Amino acid sequence: MGKDSKLILDPLADNNPITIQVLGICSALAITAELEASIVMSISVLFVLAVGNVVISLMRNIIPSKIRIIVQLIVVATLVIIVDLVLKAFAYELSKTLSVFVGLIITNCIIMGRFEAFALGNSPWRSFLDGIGNSLGYAVILIIVGFFRELLGSGTLLGIPVLGNPIPGELSGLYAYGYENNGFMLLSPMALIVVGIIIWVQRTKNKALIED
Amino acid sequence: MEHIELFFKSIFIDNMVFATFLGMCSYLAVSKKVTTAVGLGAAVIFVLAITVPLNWLLDQYILQPGALSWLGEEYASYDLSFLSFIMFIATIATMVQLVEIIVEKFSPSLYNSLGIFLPLIAVNCAILGGSLFMQSREIATLGLATTYGVGSGIGWFLAILAIAAIREKIRYSNVPPALRGLGITFIITGLMAIGFMSFGGMLTGGDEEEKTEKTAQIETVKDNSTTKEIANNTKVID
Description:
Strand content of chain A: under 5%
Low-confidence stretches of chain B: 218-238
Largest interface: A-B, 46 and 47 residues
Oligomer: heterodimer
Shape of chain A: globular
Largest sheet of chain B: none
Number of domains of chain B: 2
Low-confidence stretches of chain A: none
Helix content of chain B: over 70%
Protein backbone atom coordinates (compact mmCIF):
# COMPACT_ATOMS: atom_id res chain seq x y z
CA MET A 1 0.00 0.00 0.00
CA GLY A 2 2.80 2.38 0.93
CA LYS A 3 4.34 1.88 -2.50
CA ASP A 4 1.04 2.45 -4.28
CA SER A 5 0.24 5.68 -2.45
CA LYS A 6 3.73 6.90 -3.27
CA LEU A 7 2.85 6.55 -6.95
CA ILE A 8 0.08 9.10 -6.48
CA LEU A 9 1.70 11.43 -3.96
CA ASP A 10 5.18 11.75 -5.46
CA PRO A 11 4.21 13.56 -8.67
CA LEU A 12 2.13 16.05 -6.68
CA ALA A 13 5.17 17.81 -5.26
CA ASP A 14 8.71 16.46 -5.31
CA ASN A 15 8.51 14.85 -8.69
CA ASN A 16 5.98 17.18 -10.29
CA PRO A 17 5.72 16.62 -14.05
CA ILE A 18 5.72 20.34 -14.86
CA THR A 19 8.07 21.98 -12.40
CA ILE A 20 10.59 19.15 -11.94
CA GLN A 21 10.40 16.81 -14.93
CA VAL A 22 9.66 19.71 -17.35
CA LEU A 23 7.05 17.77 -19.28
CA GLY A 24 3.80 18.98 -20.77
CA ILE A 25 4.57 22.67 -20.59
CA CYS A 26 2.99 23.63 -23.91
CA SER A 27 -0.62 23.07 -23.01
CA ALA A 28 -0.09 24.08 -19.39
CA LEU A 29 0.72 27.63 -20.37
CA ALA A 30 -1.54 28.41 -23.26
CA ILE A 31 -4.96 27.77 -21.74
CA THR A 32 -4.57 28.98 -18.17
CA ALA A 33 -6.03 32.47 -18.58
CA GLU A 34 -9.28 31.13 -17.09
CA LEU A 35 -9.70 28.74 -14.20
CA GLU A 36 -12.50 26.83 -15.91
CA ALA A 37 -10.38 26.04 -18.96
CA SER A 38 -7.54 24.84 -16.72
CA ILE A 39 -9.88 22.49 -14.87
CA VAL A 40 -11.36 21.03 -18.04
CA MET A 41 -7.90 20.58 -19.52
CA SER A 42 -6.75 18.80 -16.36
CA ILE A 43 -9.71 16.44 -16.47
CA SER A 44 -9.04 15.67 -20.14
CA VAL A 45 -5.40 14.89 -19.43
CA LEU A 46 -6.39 12.79 -16.41
CA PHE A 47 -8.67 10.68 -18.59
CA VAL A 48 -6.20 10.28 -21.45
CA LEU A 49 -3.22 9.51 -19.22
CA ALA A 50 -4.98 7.07 -16.87
CA VAL A 51 -6.72 5.11 -19.64
CA GLY A 52 -3.73 5.30 -21.98
CA ASN A 53 -1.38 4.03 -19.29
CA VAL A 54 -3.64 1.04 -18.65
CA VAL A 55 -3.97 0.24 -22.38
CA ILE A 56 -0.23 0.47 -23.02
CA SER A 57 0.49 -1.55 -19.90
CA LEU A 58 -1.89 -4.31 -21.05
CA MET A 59 -0.20 -4.39 -24.45
CA ARG A 60 3.36 -4.01 -23.17
CA ASN A 61 4.34 -7.59 -23.93
CA ILE A 62 3.07 -7.65 -27.50
CA ILE A 63 4.32 -4.26 -28.75
CA PRO A 64 7.52 -4.70 -30.81
CA SER A 65 9.94 -2.15 -29.42
CA LYS A 66 10.82 -0.73 -32.86
CA ILE A 67 7.35 0.57 -33.60
CA ARG A 68 6.31 1.38 -30.05
CA ILE A 69 6.23 5.14 -30.62
CA ILE A 70 3.71 4.81 -33.43
CA VAL A 71 1.59 2.41 -31.35
CA GLN A 72 1.67 4.86 -28.45
CA LEU A 73 0.73 7.77 -30.70
CA ILE A 74 -2.24 5.88 -32.13
CA VAL A 75 -3.50 4.98 -28.65
CA VAL A 76 -3.25 8.59 -27.46
CA ALA A 77 -4.75 9.98 -30.65
CA THR A 78 -7.77 7.69 -30.30
CA LEU A 79 -8.33 8.73 -26.69
CA VAL A 80 -7.92 12.40 -27.56
CA ILE A 81 -10.50 12.11 -30.34
CA ILE A 82 -12.93 10.74 -27.74
CA VAL A 83 -12.21 13.69 -25.43
CA ASP A 84 -12.56 16.15 -28.30
CA LEU A 85 -15.91 14.77 -29.41
CA VAL A 86 -17.24 14.71 -25.83
CA LEU A 87 -16.16 18.33 -25.29
CA LYS A 88 -17.74 19.43 -28.57
CA ALA A 89 -20.99 17.71 -27.59
CA PHE A 90 -21.30 18.90 -23.98
CA ALA A 91 -19.18 22.04 -23.66
CA TYR A 92 -19.05 23.61 -27.09
CA GLU A 93 -18.04 27.12 -25.98
CA LEU A 94 -15.19 25.74 -23.91
CA SER A 95 -13.97 23.51 -26.72
CA LYS A 96 -13.74 26.68 -28.85
CA THR A 97 -11.57 28.31 -26.18
CA LEU A 98 -9.29 25.30 -25.94
CA SER A 99 -9.19 25.11 -29.78
CA VAL A 100 -6.16 23.19 -30.99
CA PHE A 101 -4.89 22.54 -27.49
CA VAL A 102 -7.20 19.56 -27.05
CA GLY A 103 -5.54 18.03 -30.11
CA LEU A 104 -2.16 18.89 -28.70
CA ILE A 105 -2.73 16.57 -25.74
CA ILE A 106 -1.48 13.95 -28.23
CA THR A 107 1.98 15.44 -28.22
CA ASN A 108 1.86 16.38 -24.55
CA CYS A 109 5.19 15.11 -23.35
CA ILE A 110 3.76 13.95 -20.01
CA ILE A 111 1.75 11.32 -21.80
CA MET A 112 4.49 9.92 -24.02
CA GLY A 113 6.94 10.27 -21.13
CA ARG A 114 4.82 8.20 -18.74
CA PHE A 115 4.12 5.58 -21.42
CA GLU A 116 7.83 5.19 -22.10
CA ALA A 117 9.05 5.45 -18.54
CA PHE A 118 6.34 3.62 -16.64
CA ALA A 119 3.54 1.85 -18.50
CA LEU A 120 5.89 -0.20 -20.69
CA GLY A 121 7.39 -1.87 -17.65
CA ASN A 122 4.65 -2.10 -15.03
CA SER A 123 1.36 -3.86 -14.33
CA PRO A 124 -1.93 -2.20 -15.36
CA TRP A 125 -3.01 -1.30 -11.81
CA ARG A 126 0.27 0.40 -10.95
CA SER A 127 0.26 2.16 -14.33
CA PHE A 128 -3.26 3.40 -13.64
CA LEU A 129 -2.16 4.87 -10.29
CA ASP A 130 0.90 6.41 -11.93
CA GLY A 131 -1.33 7.99 -14.58
CA ILE A 132 -3.67 9.44 -11.94
CA GLY A 133 -0.75 10.73 -9.86
CA ASN A 134 1.03 12.44 -12.72
CA SER A 135 -2.08 14.03 -14.14
CA LEU A 136 -2.98 15.31 -10.66
CA GLY A 137 0.49 16.83 -10.41
CA TYR A 138 -0.13 18.47 -13.77
CA ALA A 139 -3.58 19.62 -12.64
CA VAL A 140 -2.24 21.23 -9.46
CA ILE A 141 0.07 23.54 -11.43
CA LEU A 142 -2.58 24.31 -14.05
CA ILE A 143 -5.11 25.21 -11.37
CA ILE A 144 -2.68 27.40 -9.40
CA VAL A 145 -1.69 29.28 -12.54
CA GLY A 146 -5.30 29.55 -13.72
CA PHE A 147 -6.43 30.75 -10.29
CA PHE A 148 -3.94 33.61 -10.12
CA ARG A 149 -4.27 34.64 -13.73
CA GLU A 150 -8.05 34.81 -13.61
CA LEU A 151 -8.19 36.44 -10.17
CA LEU A 152 -5.64 39.15 -10.93
CA GLY A 153 -6.45 39.50 -14.61
CA SER A 154 -10.21 39.76 -14.63
CA GLY A 155 -11.18 39.76 -10.93
CA THR A 156 -13.32 36.64 -11.33
CA LEU A 157 -13.07 32.96 -10.44
CA LEU A 158 -14.85 30.46 -12.69
CA GLY A 159 -16.55 33.51 -14.24
CA ILE A 160 -18.02 34.71 -10.92
CA PRO A 161 -16.87 38.21 -9.84
CA VAL A 162 -15.15 37.94 -6.46
CA LEU A 163 -13.50 41.33 -6.14
CA GLY A 164 -16.63 43.42 -6.64
CA ASN A 165 -18.12 45.18 -9.63
CA PRO A 166 -15.66 46.97 -11.95
CA ILE A 167 -18.25 48.75 -14.15
CA PRO A 168 -17.78 52.54 -13.87
CA GLY A 169 -20.66 54.20 -12.06
CA GLU A 170 -21.57 51.13 -10.01
CA LEU A 171 -18.18 50.33 -8.48
CA SER A 172 -18.23 48.03 -5.49
CA GLY A 173 -15.90 45.83 -3.47
CA LEU A 174 -12.18 46.44 -3.99
CA TYR A 175 -12.83 48.52 -7.09
CA ALA A 176 -14.49 51.21 -4.97
CA TYR A 177 -11.11 51.76 -3.34
CA GLY A 178 -9.36 52.32 -6.65
CA TYR A 179 -8.21 48.74 -7.39
CA GLU A 180 -7.87 47.87 -11.05
CA ASN A 181 -7.57 44.58 -12.90
CA ASN A 182 -4.14 43.82 -14.25
CA GLY A 183 -5.02 43.03 -17.86
CA PHE A 184 -1.47 41.93 -18.44
CA MET A 185 -2.12 38.74 -16.47
CA LEU A 186 -4.44 37.58 -19.24
CA LEU A 187 -1.72 37.76 -21.88
CA SER A 188 0.32 34.67 -22.60
CA PRO A 189 3.78 35.80 -21.37
CA MET A 190 2.50 36.06 -17.81
CA ALA A 191 1.82 32.33 -17.72
CA LEU A 192 5.53 31.71 -18.14
CA ILE A 193 6.43 34.15 -15.42
CA VAL A 194 3.85 32.71 -13.01
CA VAL A 195 5.21 29.18 -13.59
CA GLY A 196 8.73 30.55 -13.09
CA ILE A 197 7.67 31.97 -9.74
CA ILE A 198 6.02 28.68 -8.71
CA ILE A 199 9.29 26.88 -9.49
CA TRP A 200 11.17 29.49 -7.47
CA VAL A 201 8.92 29.07 -4.44
CA GLN A 202 9.03 25.27 -4.64
CA ARG A 203 12.81 25.14 -4.85
CA THR A 204 13.27 27.62 -2.06
CA LYS A 205 11.21 25.34 0.17
CA ASN A 206 12.95 22.16 -0.92
CA LYS A 207 16.67 22.80 -1.33
CA ALA A 208 17.26 19.28 -2.65
CA LEU A 209 15.67 20.27 -5.96
CA ILE A 210 18.06 23.11 -6.73
CA GLU A 211 20.05 22.69 -9.97
CA ASP A 212 23.60 23.87 -10.23
CA MET B 1 2.15 39.85 -51.05
CA GLU B 2 -0.09 37.38 -49.33
CA HIS B 3 2.90 35.03 -48.99
CA ILE B 4 5.18 37.69 -47.54
CA GLU B 5 2.53 38.75 -45.06
CA LEU B 6 1.85 35.20 -43.88
CA PHE B 7 5.57 34.47 -43.73
CA PHE B 8 6.38 37.37 -41.40
CA LYS B 9 3.20 36.88 -39.45
CA SER B 10 4.08 33.28 -38.66
CA ILE B 11 7.66 34.17 -37.70
CA PHE B 12 7.03 37.16 -35.47
CA ILE B 13 3.40 37.72 -34.54
CA ASP B 14 2.24 34.12 -34.18
CA ASN B 15 5.64 32.89 -33.07
CA MET B 16 5.26 29.24 -32.10
CA VAL B 17 7.09 29.58 -28.80
CA PHE B 18 6.21 33.07 -27.64
CA ALA B 19 2.61 33.38 -28.77
CA THR B 20 1.26 29.85 -28.56
CA PHE B 21 3.79 27.99 -26.38
CA LEU B 22 4.26 25.14 -28.80
CA GLY B 23 7.24 22.85 -28.58
CA MET B 24 8.13 24.11 -25.12
CA CYS B 25 9.33 20.73 -23.88
CA SER B 26 12.18 20.42 -26.35
CA TYR B 27 12.67 24.19 -26.26
CA LEU B 28 13.53 23.95 -22.57
CA ALA B 29 15.35 20.63 -22.71
CA VAL B 30 17.65 21.18 -25.69
CA SER B 31 18.53 24.86 -25.23
CA LYS B 32 21.57 24.45 -23.02
CA LYS B 33 24.04 24.83 -25.88
CA VAL B 34 23.82 26.90 -29.05
CA THR B 35 25.15 24.17 -31.35
CA THR B 36 22.54 21.59 -30.34
CA ALA B 37 19.85 24.27 -30.42
CA VAL B 38 20.78 25.09 -34.03
CA GLY B 39 20.59 21.40 -34.96
CA LEU B 40 17.14 20.92 -33.47
CA GLY B 41 15.90 24.23 -34.88
CA ALA B 42 17.01 23.27 -38.40
CA ALA B 43 15.32 19.90 -38.05
CA VAL B 44 12.08 21.59 -36.98
CA ILE B 45 12.11 23.94 -40.00
CA PHE B 46 12.78 20.97 -42.26
CA VAL B 47 10.00 18.77 -40.88
CA LEU B 48 7.43 21.59 -40.65
CA ALA B 49 8.11 22.56 -44.27
CA ILE B 50 7.29 18.99 -45.32
CA THR B 51 4.44 18.01 -43.00
CA VAL B 52 2.31 21.16 -43.13
CA PRO B 53 1.74 21.06 -46.93
CA LEU B 54 1.29 17.29 -46.78
CA ASN B 55 -1.33 17.57 -44.08
CA TRP B 56 -2.94 20.40 -46.04
CA LEU B 57 -3.42 17.99 -48.95
CA LEU B 58 -4.81 15.35 -46.58
CA ASP B 59 -7.18 17.89 -45.07
CA GLN B 60 -8.40 19.20 -48.44
CA TYR B 61 -8.84 15.89 -50.24
CA ILE B 62 -9.73 13.42 -47.50
CA LEU B 63 -10.71 14.91 -44.19
CA GLN B 64 -12.90 17.98 -44.75
CA PRO B 65 -16.66 17.59 -45.00
CA GLY B 66 -17.36 16.80 -48.66
CA ALA B 67 -13.66 16.50 -49.48
CA LEU B 68 -14.11 13.00 -50.85
CA SER B 69 -16.30 14.16 -53.73
CA TRP B 70 -13.41 13.62 -56.18
CA LEU B 71 -14.04 9.89 -55.68
CA GLY B 72 -17.56 10.16 -57.01
CA GLU B 73 -20.97 11.64 -56.25
CA GLU B 74 -21.90 9.11 -53.58
CA TYR B 75 -18.91 10.09 -51.42
CA ALA B 76 -19.74 13.81 -51.37
CA SER B 77 -21.64 13.64 -48.06
CA TYR B 78 -18.82 12.01 -46.06
CA ASP B 79 -17.28 14.01 -43.21
CA LEU B 80 -14.08 12.48 -41.86
CA SER B 81 -12.85 15.54 -39.97
CA PHE B 82 -13.01 13.69 -36.64
CA LEU B 83 -10.12 11.57 -37.91
CA SER B 84 -7.81 14.52 -38.41
CA PHE B 85 -5.78 14.08 -35.19
CA ILE B 86 -4.97 10.48 -35.94
CA MET B 87 -4.22 11.14 -39.63
CA PHE B 88 -1.99 14.13 -38.89
CA ILE B 89 0.04 12.41 -36.21
CA ALA B 90 0.42 9.28 -38.35
CA THR B 91 1.64 11.41 -41.29
CA ILE B 92 4.09 13.22 -39.03
CA ALA B 93 5.48 10.05 -37.48
CA THR B 94 5.84 8.40 -40.89
CA MET B 95 7.42 11.46 -42.51
CA VAL B 96 9.92 11.84 -39.70
CA GLN B 97 10.92 8.20 -40.08
CA LEU B 98 11.12 8.55 -43.86
CA VAL B 99 13.12 11.76 -43.73
CA GLU B 100 15.51 10.11 -41.30
CA ILE B 101 16.09 7.18 -43.66
CA ILE B 102 16.53 9.40 -46.74
CA VAL B 103 18.88 11.83 -45.03
CA GLU B 104 20.94 8.97 -43.65
CA LYS B 105 21.25 7.46 -47.13
CA PHE B 106 22.05 10.58 -49.14
CA SER B 107 23.73 12.99 -46.78
CA PRO B 108 25.56 11.35 -43.91
CA SER B 109 27.02 14.69 -42.79
CA LEU B 110 23.57 16.28 -42.49
CA TYR B 111 22.40 13.11 -40.76
CA ASN B 112 25.17 13.42 -38.22
CA SER B 113 24.12 16.94 -37.35
CA LEU B 114 20.33 16.47 -37.56
CA GLY B 115 20.04 12.74 -37.01
CA ILE B 116 19.70 12.45 -33.27
CA PHE B 117 17.05 15.17 -33.21
CA LEU B 118 14.75 13.72 -35.82
CA PRO B 119 13.09 11.05 -33.62
CA LEU B 120 12.59 13.70 -30.92
CA ILE B 121 10.62 15.75 -33.36
CA ALA B 122 7.80 13.27 -33.94
CA VAL B 123 6.44 14.16 -30.53
CA ASN B 124 7.26 17.87 -30.65
CA CYS B 125 4.07 19.86 -30.15
CA ALA B 126 5.27 22.48 -32.61
CA ILE B 127 4.97 20.05 -35.52
CA LEU B 128 1.46 18.82 -34.77
CA GLY B 129 0.52 22.36 -33.71
CA GLY B 130 1.60 23.68 -37.09
CA SER B 131 -0.75 21.27 -38.85
CA LEU B 132 -3.63 21.91 -36.46
CA PHE B 133 -3.31 25.69 -36.76
CA MET B 134 -3.09 25.31 -40.53
CA GLN B 135 -6.42 23.50 -40.35
CA SER B 136 -8.16 25.82 -37.89
CA ARG B 137 -6.99 29.01 -39.62
CA GLU B 138 -8.27 27.67 -42.95
CA ILE B 139 -5.18 28.41 -44.99
CA ALA B 140 -6.33 28.61 -48.59
CA THR B 141 -3.71 27.16 -50.94
CA LEU B 142 -0.89 24.63 -50.95
CA GLY B 143 1.66 27.41 -51.53
CA LEU B 144 0.42 29.36 -48.51
CA ALA B 145 0.53 26.21 -46.39
CA THR B 146 4.19 25.71 -47.33
CA THR B 147 4.94 29.35 -46.53
CA TYR B 148 3.21 28.95 -43.21
CA GLY B 149 5.18 25.78 -42.39
CA VAL B 150 8.54 27.33 -43.27
CA GLY B 151 7.69 30.59 -41.48
CA SER B 152 6.63 28.98 -38.23
CA GLY B 153 9.70 26.73 -38.36
CA ILE B 154 11.96 29.77 -38.68
CA GLY B 155 10.11 31.44 -35.80
CA TRP B 156 10.76 28.41 -33.60
CA PHE B 157 14.40 28.33 -34.73
CA LEU B 158 14.88 31.98 -33.78
CA ALA B 159 13.32 31.42 -30.37
CA ILE B 160 15.47 28.42 -29.44
CA LEU B 161 18.61 30.09 -30.79
CA ALA B 162 17.98 33.19 -28.69
CA ILE B 163 17.28 31.33 -25.46
CA ALA B 164 20.28 29.02 -25.96
CA ALA B 165 22.57 32.03 -26.39
CA ILE B 166 21.13 33.68 -23.28
CA ARG B 167 21.47 30.50 -21.24
CA GLU B 168 25.11 30.14 -22.25
CA LYS B 169 25.80 33.64 -20.97
CA ILE B 170 23.66 33.44 -17.86
CA ARG B 171 25.96 30.81 -16.40
CA TYR B 172 28.28 33.66 -15.45
CA SER B 173 25.57 35.63 -13.66
CA ASN B 174 24.67 35.48 -10.03
CA VAL B 175 21.16 34.05 -10.11
CA PRO B 176 19.42 33.17 -6.81
CA PRO B 177 20.12 29.45 -6.22
CA ALA B 178 16.46 28.39 -6.22
CA LEU B 179 15.87 30.13 -9.52
CA ARG B 180 18.87 28.64 -11.31
CA GLY B 181 18.27 26.47 -14.35
CA LEU B 182 14.62 26.02 -15.07
CA GLY B 183 13.13 28.90 -13.09
CA ILE B 184 15.17 31.66 -14.68
CA THR B 185 14.66 30.15 -18.14
CA PHE B 186 10.91 30.41 -17.69
CA ILE B 187 11.09 34.01 -16.59
CA ILE B 188 13.44 34.98 -19.43
CA THR B 189 11.14 33.31 -21.93
CA GLY B 190 8.27 35.29 -20.44
CA LEU B 191 10.17 38.55 -20.86
CA MET B 192 11.13 37.61 -24.43
CA ALA B 193 7.49 36.84 -25.15
CA ILE B 194 6.54 40.32 -23.91
CA GLY B 195 9.14 41.69 -26.32
CA PHE B 196 7.74 39.67 -29.20
CA MET B 197 4.25 40.99 -28.47
CA SER B 198 5.38 44.35 -29.76
CA PHE B 199 5.57 42.83 -33.25
CA GLY B 200 1.79 42.55 -33.03
CA GLY B 201 1.45 46.06 -34.40
CA MET B 202 3.46 45.20 -37.49
CA LEU B 203 0.67 44.01 -39.78
CA THR B 204 -2.48 45.36 -38.18
CA GLY B 205 -2.49 48.54 -40.29
CA GLY B 206 -4.15 46.81 -43.23
CA ASP B 207 -6.67 45.05 -41.03
CA GLU B 208 -7.82 48.28 -39.43
CA GLU B 209 -8.37 49.94 -42.79
CA GLU B 210 -10.49 46.98 -43.82
CA LYS B 211 -12.50 47.21 -40.60
CA THR B 212 -13.27 50.91 -40.99
CA GLU B 213 -14.33 50.23 -44.57
CA LYS B 214 -16.69 47.54 -43.35
CA THR B 215 -18.26 49.73 -40.66
CA ALA B 216 -18.62 52.51 -43.22
CA GLN B 217 -20.45 50.11 -45.50
CA ILE B 218 -22.77 49.07 -42.70
CA GLU B 219 -23.54 52.68 -41.87
CA THR B 220 -24.46 53.57 -45.45
CA VAL B 221 -26.72 50.56 -45.51
CA LYS B 222 -28.34 51.75 -42.27
CA ASP B 223 -29.04 55.12 -43.84
CA ASN B 224 -31.01 54.01 -46.82
CA SER B 225 -32.65 50.68 -46.17
CA THR B 226 -34.83 48.76 -43.74
CA THR B 227 -33.56 46.98 -40.62
CA LYS B 228 -34.03 43.60 -42.25
CA GLU B 229 -31.55 44.43 -44.97
CA ILE B 230 -29.04 45.64 -42.40
CA ALA B 231 -29.21 42.28 -40.69
CA ASN B 232 -28.62 40.50 -43.99
CA ASN B 233 -25.72 42.76 -44.90
CA THR B 234 -23.95 42.48 -41.59
CA LYS B 235 -24.30 38.71 -41.81
CA VAL B 236 -22.63 38.71 -45.22
CA ILE B 237 -19.89 41.01 -43.99
CA ASP B 238 -19.30 38.95 -40.87
